[in-house]
């Protein structure tokens, strides 16, 4: 009986030790995401998706470029740190944060309550609309016209969320792909009838010899995108919100919008 009691005591002590170690680790993880620690580390690690022009793509030298890329570099410059880009696809953005691969995500990351259950968002630094794209010859004007048709979406993107909500009531099939070029290729190859995409989606379609045969059909949802960070890092989030306020107020964000999107930046909400 005495031996069993000692064993239980030892197990309890080990459990307390493990819980304490986990608590210390979680505190250290949270501490590593303060602005001061990022500066001391000397490098900002940012997740991007280089299949989302004009927000992020690869130039002729295979280096990242775009609206999101320039913004991320502005953040690193303000922090006086180096920057490292980690390429992910749309469904890989949240896991990259939760597994500590990156410090933040700057990747046309639309702000939704569902995503905010897992990560934290900065104030918006831009916005666009999800739209339905398809052949000009195909008469599609609303969700009801999609009945019996195949619709391509990029997995986890805003158009996936919107079309999934409308699927059951309107009787269409959704085919999901892991990145925007794959979604576009499904459209160009005739694998699907229409596709969901951003309002810059025609950039990809017009790279094809048949690209001019496609058009925007109807808008799906207007949204704003923010910078994603892990939850529980108020210091970093406060700094990012201050940074976005500053570059919006001094016109830098509008300059990026004109450079990469060829349109002025719309008024941005705050929260």
Structure, described:
- Helices cover 40% and strands 25% of the residues.
- By secondary structure, the chain is of the alpha/beta class.
- The chain has two domains: 32-127 and 224-261, 3-Layer(aba) Sandwich (D-Maltodextrin-Binding Protein, domain 2), CATH 3.40.190; 129-222, Periplasmic binding protein-like II (D-Maltodextrin-Binding Protein, domain 2).
- The strands form two sheets. Strands 1, 4, 5, 6, 7, 8, 9, 10 and 11 form a nine-stranded mixed beta sheet that branches. Strands 2-3 form a two-stranded antiparallel ribbon.
- β8 (150-154), α5 (158-170) and β9 (173-177) form a beta-alpha-beta unit.
Largest sheet: 9 strands, mixed
Q: Count the strands? A: 11
Q: What letter string, H or E per element, gives the SSE order?
A: HHEEEHEHEEEEHEHEHEHH
Helix content: 25-40%
Number of helices: 9
Radius of gyration: 22 Å
Name of the CATH superfamily of the largest domain: Periplasmic binding protein-like II
- List low-pLDDT spans: 1-31
Mean pLDDT: 87
CATH topology of the largest domain, which one? D-Maltodextrin-Binding Protein, domain 2
CATH level-two architecture of the largest domain:
3-Layer(aba) Sandwich
**Which CATH C-level class of the largest domain is it?**
Alpha Beta
What's the gist of this structure?
The chain has 271 residues and is of the alpha/beta class. It is built from nine helices and eleven strands. Strands 1, 4, 5, 6, 7, 8, 9, 10 and 11 form a nine-stranded mixed β-sheet that branches.
Give descriptors for this structure:
271 residues; alpha/beta; D-Maltodextrin-Binding Protein, domain 2; 2 domains; nine-stranded mixed beta sheet; two-stranded antiparallel sheet; 11 strands; globular; disordered N terminus
